[in-house]
Write a structure and sequence with these properties.
- With 126 residues, the protein is mainly α.
- The chain has one domain.
- The protein contains three helices and no strands.
Length: 126
């Protein structure tokens, strides 16, 4: 049997949760990107009929940038999760006492919060 099996299993469950979060963030980025494309297409269709939608076409670059940012942050989440998984597995096998590393977690949380604020601005003020 593997020594500290329950600890290694908990490490793997945490890794899988981080992966799920990264994939969800990437999917949300794709959703914003495709919704932005849908809105731009609808604005073009409405303007072809002679009507005008106020400033919908002007938000195209902003929505695309937010969508791409979410995709990049999701990929970073997956890379950080992989690094954490390997590091934690190594620390579990080591018998020394290690301090927890929260810099990556805190940094990703702040970046994600900034992106969510940016997406909220896009949805509420567009």
């Amino acid at each position: 049997m593997i020594r500290s099996y329950t600890d290694h299993a908990a490490n793997e469950r945490t890794f899988l949760a981080w992966l799920r979060t990264g994939i969800a963030i990437i999917a949300f980025g794709f959703l914003i990107e495709k919704f932005n494309l849908f809105v731009a297409t609808m604005a073009d269709a409405v303007s072809a009929e002679g009507r005008h939608l106020p400033d919908v076409a002007d938000m195209g670059g902003y929505g695309r940038g937010i969508g791409h940012s979410f995709i990049v942050v999701g990929i970073v989440f997956i890379l950080v999760a992989t690094g954490r998984f390997v590091r934690t597995g190594w620390m579990l096998d080591d018998q020394k006492i290690h301090s927890p590393g929260i810099v990556a977690d805190l940094s990703l949380s702040v970046i994600l919060a900034i992106l969510l604020i940016g997406a909220s601005i896009l949805l509420f003020f567009a």
